[in-house]
Design a protein that fits this description.
Aspartate Aminotransferase, domain 1; globular; alpha/beta; 2 domains; homodimer; 5-stranded mixed β-sheet; 7-stranded mixed β-sheet
Chain lengths: 393, 393
């Protein structure tokens, strides 16, 4: 086993040595020419990863701050918000909207399941005045990837009168037919973007949020957010209070290569190096690598006789896998032994899954060797803890 | 002249090589044992610098995010707020309160002047229902340090009936006598704390905010905030919406050595090294060094025949000096020439002082040699730009 830490949590992900070196760049003037060029360069490069022609704004905040910026920059208190939630981060997105006075309609799934586009269609039919839909692309707490493109198609089709399944269609506005504009689609892409295929414009996403410490192989501290033209129109009407996380202020500063507030410069330096590295590998190879790592983890886990939380392979996440902790084994004992004996760091469960699952992160800097090492350590640790595959079945 | 950048802006300040090395620390589990120990250690050490027995909370945000956290964690929409403003950052603090629905009473001074405690007393007399007073300790945009201890004494003395100067004192509540609790005192200590004497508890300050990229010699990305017991009582009643910048969530996570959201870990690693370095130098020597650097800059500038924006030496800042740009010289030309020819980076003016002043930062990592180099470069640059001392007087 290697002496180096095998950090297999779903973020912060391991940062390569050359990117760490970039992070240690000496300070310069954050409003000077050199740093303005850097901000412009990384913002431009991020557009390729978002697959958007819109600006990508960079906030000095974690992913949660990015999610809050999406809500407060597009909505007003009292706005009806459909929250599609399949885990802890879906709940967090909803809690933010609720905190700022949004009227949250919950569409909740058992943790471990993916959302179904058909349910979203039905919920929007029942609530024709929904102003925005909140969706998590990849739910870090459960290892499930939502069918985002399909969900987006349903949300996009919610034009006035477009709900063709409704028998009362065409009978006028009093039937609850959609007289409001198409809902905005706000997407938490924190643990998906940069690691698995993603198309902000092609899928018709309005606000997309991600964070530096996931697929990007950069330390935590920055959130990246894109806004569609429709989202900017909503911004003009949005009345939720906002200051530090105001996306309009970030948009206005970007053409000068600036941020409205002093940015977390070290992370920007790292991001610059990371985007260069990612460009060298190329999107296709990065996506293929993540798909392959995801499969390798799931097959490895099943081969050990363990059970995945997400039992539908179609929605299994290629960036993080949640595994049911076998009966008789404590998650904390398993994680401590993995770290103490093998230098492999796993994540536990969040919220109601605490103590019930453990998670393996496989996004960003991850190669077959890391997964092989993880699986070998897991097998030996389980054996040491007295668990034998299949005993409980 | 040295080849290294002489970064003489009032933040980000230069980061010593050993601290940059710490910033490049590889990622670990942000909820693991090692990082929990680090968070607990730096939070404890910060208390010494704040001179407080209260927790110091660490937010992954810039100083502006810290200021917002202070406002939204203690106030409700409609609360009357006295804004004591002597420059751009005082205005920003007020703008945050206004954005969240605070009823802001402005007490504004000409930029370059300090606030007077007597004016604060009078304003509080006129507005006995003021819930909070916002004060900037050191105004980075003008190079002025407010008499914070005096102002705090005035605010603290605003108990019911304590306004002894009022002739109508004792004639009952209808005279406008203070029936409300003593106002909270919210302090922007972004460019003062860690560099000049400061006593959160001793002076009776309720919320104190500072940022990593100033006196601490750490890259930008973290804000540090302390809350008094009275501030925590206000927190329980405060109705401004808050999520990412919610200080209560930070307070609840701290005993576990955690932050509510994924922290900007690299900056924490840097902070840990910086606090060790600062402890070695010691508070007294650090304060003396800043006082001496401040004097050296002011004397040097005056010796060149230039005029300080702050003409009252009692309130001249020991962390940043604002200098009136001589007539006939463009600030941008001066700054560009200083950087291109001498590697000395100065700051320009902000807001209404843009194009009228330039600023020299002298906080954090700063020694006599840096100031000597700056002054020599300034003298030569002014000469090249055709300015001769005293010509315009």
């Amino acid at each position: 086993m290697s002496d180096a830490l095998n950090l297999r949590i779903p973020g912060p992900t391991p940062v390569p040595a050359d990117i760490l070196e970039a992070v240690a760049h000496p300070m310069v003037n954050h409003r000077g020419r050199e740093f303005a060029a850097l901000i412009s360069r990384v913002a431009e490069r991020l557009k390729d990863w978002f697959q958007t022609s819109n600006d990508v704004l960079i906030l000095s905040a974690s992913g949660t701050g990015g999610l809050e910026s999406a809500v407060v920059s597009t909505l007003s208190p009292g706005d009806k918000v459909l929250s599609v939630s399949i885990g802890a981060f879906g709940e967090r997105f909803a809690a933010i909207a609720d905190t700022y006075g949004g009227d949250v309609i919950p569409l909740q799934y058992e943790w471990g399941q993916a959302a179904r586009a058909e349910d979203v269609r039905q919920a929007l039919g029942e609530h024709p005045d929904v102003k925005a839909v909140l969706v998590t692309h990849n739910e870090t707490s459960t290892g499930v990837t939502n069918p985002l493109e399909e969900i987006a198609r349903v949300v996009r089709s919610q034009d006035p009168g477009a709900r063709s399944q409704e028998p009362s269609r065409g009978s006028g506005r009093t039937d609850g037919g959609r007289s409001e504009p198409t809902p905005l689609l706000l997407v938490d892409a924190v643990s998906s973007l940069g690691a698995i295929p993603f198309e902000a414009d092609g899928w018709g996403l309005d606000v997309v949020v991600t964070g530096s410490q996931k697929g990007w192989m950069v330390p935590p501290g920055l959130a990246f957010v894109s806004m569609s033209e429709r989202a900017w129109q909503a911004y003009e009407q949005a009345k939720m209070p906002r200051f530090y996380l105001d996306l309009g202020r970030h948009r206005d500063a970007l053409p000068k290569g600036q941020t409205p507030w002093t940015p977390a410069m070290s992370i920007f330096f790292g991001l610059d190096a990371a985007l260069e590295r990612m460009a060298e590998e190329g999107a296709e190879r990065i996506f293929t690598r993540h798909a392959s790592m995801g499969r390798m983890v799931r097959e490895g886990v099943k081969a050990l006789g363990l059970e995945l939380l997400c039992q539908d392979e179609r929605f299994a996440s290629d960036t993080v896998t949640a595994i049911k902790c076998p009966e008789g084994i404590e998650v904390s004992a398993l994680r401590n032994a993995m770290e103490d004996d093998y230098n492999v760091v796993l994540a536990g469960g969040q919220g109601k899954l605490q103590g019930k699952i453990f998670r393996i992160g496989h996004l960003g800097l991850v190669e077959e060797e890391d997964i092989r090492e993880t699986m070998a350590a897991l097998e030996q640790t389980l054996a040491k803890l007295g668990w034998t595959a299949g005993v409980r079945s």
